[in-house]
Amino acid sequence: MALGKRTTSAREGINRDKSYPIAEAVKLVKERAKAKFDETIEIAMNLGVDPKHADQMVRGVVNLPNGSGRTVRVGVFARGAKAEEAKAAGADVVGAEDLVEKVNGGTIDFDRCIATPDMMPLVGRLGKVLGPRGMMPNPKVGTVTMDITNAVKASKGGSVEFRVEKAGIIQAGVGKASFTEDKLVENIKAFADAVQKAKPPGAKGHYINRVAISSTMGPGVKVEPSSLFTSGGGH
User: Fold this and answer.
1) How does DSSP classify residue 56?
2) Strand order from edge to edge, sheet including 208-215
3) CB-CB contact of 48 with 168 (8 Å)
4) Are strands 221-223 and 208-215 parallel, antiparallel or unpaired?
């Protein structure tokens, strides 16, 4: 298949068989992010796990030191004082039964979802709607909590949830092309570190196999996994 001029020129100067140290990889990706909008910088990590086994599931949350650059709309399931707290913290949508009904009817006007523990029996009914979108509140990633203020602020400020997909791949947005190279490197290292710490007990052998970063419209650049960890970890 013939590649467009833009793709061909974007790929120039990238050796597709080489893995680059993270700072160099970020530079290459940033130089090629030339779309008319502020492209998202994405990371894809190929892990040596099989998520079909419960003891090889990888999931967690990371607060990116420089934020994600995304405008995240936050929905909160809460009642009474906690609902007021959510509104004061800047949540975009707050409700209880009414919000459950709305979501069940297919209206989801938020990107992240937080719930107080007492709301979970109600929210549990939305598993079929929120589950496939990876939006189900979960205590493991801090989205089922009584500390609504911090949870809302973290979601707004650049906390990124991750979870491994079928083929053992984790993907996430870790910043914007307008960020400085240093800020992107910091964010990517923080993300890789969180994935490393989330290594499940059932993971055998090599854990972080391949890493690549790209911008929304740009080519992927392979990253040398050891350059993501100050101690050269990643095994």
Assistant:
1) G
2) 169-176, 40-47, 208-215, 221-223
3) yes
4) antiparallel
Helix (H, G, I), strand (E, B) or coil at 94: strand
Instruction: Give the Å distances, CA to CA, from 130 to 96, 104, 106, 138, 153.
Output: 15, 9, 10, 11, 21
CB 15 within 8 A of CB 185: no
Predicted model pTM: 0.79
**Burial degree of 15 (CB within 10 A; 0-12, 13-18, 19+):** exposed
Helix %, strand %, coil % for the chain, to 5?
35, 20, 40
Q: What is the pLDDT, as a whole number, of residue 233?
A: 44
Q: What is the pLDDT of residues 163-222, one digit of tens each?
A: 999 899 999 999 999 999 999 999 999 999 999 999 999 998 899 999 999 999 999 999
What angle is formed at CA 85 by the lines to CA 83 and CA 90, rounded to 5 degrees?
100
Which pair of structure tokens corresponds to residue 83?
Answer: 């609902």
Angle 186-163-49 (CA atoms, 0-180°, nearest 5)? 100
Of 161, 143, 188, 165, which is closest to residue 56 (Cα–Cα)?
Answer: 165
Residue 26 CA to residue 215 CA, distance in Å, equals 10
Q: What digits encode the pLDDT tens for the residues 102-161?
A: 999 999 999 999 999 999 999 999 999 999 888 999 998 899 999 999 999 988 888 888
- 15-64 pLDDT tens trace: 989 999 999 999 999 999 999 999 999 999 999 999 999 899 998 889 89
Distance (Å, whole) CA 38 – CA 142: 29
